[in-house]
Amino acid sequence: MALAMAAAWPLPAAWAQTVDAGSSAGSSTVTITGRSSATPSLAGFGDVPLAKSPLQASVFGAQLLADQGIFSLGALTRLDASIGDAYNAEGYIANLSSRGYALDNRFNYRRDGLPINAETALPLDNKERLELLKGTSGIQAGTSAPGGLVNLVVKRPTASQRQARLEWREQGTALAAVDLSERFGRDGALGLRVNLAAERLDPSTRDTTGSRRLAALALDWQLTPDSLLQAELENSRQSQPSVAGYSLLGNDVPDPRRIDIRRNLNAQPWAQPVVFNGSTASLRWQQQLRGLGAWAEGWRLTAQAMTQRLRNDDRTAFPYGVYDSNYVCTDYCDRFAPDGSFTYWEYISNNERRRSDALALTLAGQLRTGPVEHAFETGLLHTRYQARLQDQVFDIAGPGRIDGSLQSPPSARFTDANTNRDERGLEWFARDAMRLGSAWQLWAGLRHVRLDRASVRTSADSSGSLRATDYDRQATTPWLATSWQFSPKTLLYASWGRGLETDVAPNRARYRNAGASLALNSRQKELGVKHGNDQVEAALTLFDIDRGVAADFGPCNDSRDSCERRVDGSARHRGVEAQWTRTLAQWTLQGSAMLLQAQRRGSQTPGVNGQRPVNVPRNSLRLGAEYRPPALPGLVLQAGFSSEGSRVVLPYDNSVIIPAWQRWDLGLRWRQTWAGTDLVWRVAVDNLADKRAWKESPYQFGHAYLYPLAPRSVRASLQAGF
């Protein structure tokens, strides 16, 4: 059964995919259901449906993103209770968390299954869907932060399709995009798809006007019934001033109702926009293997290569503590002063160049060994990453105030060294889904990785050192699970897995173990149930993730050998996720919730154990409803509700907290046909009650930041398929 709906409001964790029968080709709607046969490619077990897999994932399709007005990864927090903000600034790199752990932009993102770097603005106009695999990701990544992996799936050629979209958002953001697809040759063996987009960016926050553009091309060629060649190319650019965060006023959280949250503290005369340029290209060949015998069926060999080139200009007027002209901190080093004053720092890091390359070879298929049926996959993945940067400016400019009344002079632009990086990885992996009868299934995965990483400063320090570091490491991350098909409509499962991150002690004289690498191991246990029938889809998941934390020990002053960096206990996140969808006549009701207990343990630092981590809510909730009036075919009325619990602001001090917040959204979608053209109208009001609250409290770069909930805004769009 597939739910015949086009979800447009906050959704529970997706288990499958459905297609809105009234949509144009290529605009499939990915929704949430526990029984559909679709499978996110990131799940890693071939064609095994996610509804029958012992893991949780969310899948967000192109139409859902259009319904929500989502054009950046940072807005995914609206769609699933387990996804949160993690220094998610307007006009900057999207930073997300999953199950309370911040995702690493270098290691937790994939594009058609291959690793990419997300230290950029990733366009979504040419993406068919986004996938989030939840939990410890060692089954899919050699190194990554626990919590989840995000996979971007590129739109590929389909049957003839021509689609155009216009969209407007407050204050003056305007988007124009086209999506064209066609097949050529005998039996449509050749396919071509083009996506073009151009947007003027003018969000509700003032002084953030910018622009972005995208040009993307996808090709495929069905050489034979068993051979498929696919290629795609994407080029994008975004230029926009980023939005600087607010902070504490001394020891107090400022009242967001008394602050003009549309003010951008980055608006100084000398401030420059952040510019993201990106180009990505990939080539994939799939070959079906025949004649292997009755014991082996459906085998496929896949070879895939991808390269990504990024060039960033990262620049901002940075509010950071209160310092004098000699760089000496006063009483407020990591926050604003009680009267709202702070120090502006000018940050400039131009011409940042990053390159990521990946090459994968995968063999997958089904086989039988005695009474056991296997869905097996194995392969190799080779990755290479380079970061080539220049000396950066991070220099005091002058004083600022939270009310924007002060204009600071620019800094003297003294430069400091940056860090170039080189990384190589070689991974071997194997996964096997073993059916042990009609009800029981055993799942196993193993990934072995060899890492070689090196870094060097862009210029020497006062002692003449470039502080070069290099290390290599090998690790194996296993994953095991078992599932029981309790009934045709209910699946029970339990899983256990491990993951890995690496850290390195800076190569500075103050560290006794300068240059030493640290392994930050993580492990996860998960227990879940999935159920679905003709009217209800539901799931309940219990998870327990424990991840190592690196910390400095000692005074860490300028004295030689004054401190040491080592693993200091762990951050343990235990929680429960619940997802629910109910269809009844013209109504569709949906919900997604997460309760999370996150705390430090095993630390040798006094006062740390038992503390809540910064910027992690204890609970989050997403609710959505759709109503289709029988008298008006094609019209869908929509409502959404979002809620998040309180968040801690300062590390090692749970006394400073930002309160919980709630938000309502309303909208509609109306599909009609006019003169042979399929038209889809969308109108929505986000944050209907204009709720004022702090939505997140990231502690980044040694500073406490506060980001406000976006004020009430209106958006409208028209999509035409012809």
Can you characterise this structure?
The chain is mainly beta and 722 residues long. The chain has one domain: Beta Barrel (Maltoporin, Chain A). It has 1 helix and 38 strands. The strands form 6 sheets. The protein has a 22-stranded antiparallel β-barrel. Strands 1-7-8-5-6 form a 5-stranded mixed beta sheet. Strands 2-3-4 form a 3-stranded antiparallel beta sheet, with no helix packed on it.
In short, what is this structure?
By secondary structure, the protein is mainly β. It has one helix at residues 62-68; strands at residues 57-61, 83-85, 96-98, 101-102, 109-111, 114-115, 127-134, 148-154, 161-169, 173-184, 190-201, 210-224, 227-240, 274-289, 296-319, 341-369, 372-388, 392-401, 415-416, 419-435, 440-457, 469-487, 490-504, 517-532, 536-553, 564-584, 587-601, 619-627, 635-644, 647-650, 653-658, 661-674, 677-686, 694-696, 699-700, 703-704, 707-708, 713-721.
CATH superfamily: TonB-dependent receptor, beta-barrel domain
Measured between the Cα atoms of the first and last residue, the distance is: 29 Å
CATH class: Mainly Beta
Number of domains: 1
The tally of helices reads 1
Tell me the radius of gyration: 25 Å
> What global shape is seen?
globular
Major sheet size, sense and barrel closure: 22 strands, antiparallel, barrel
Tell me the strand percentage band. over 45%
| Quaternary structure classification | single chain
Q: What do the pLDDT scores average to?
A: 91
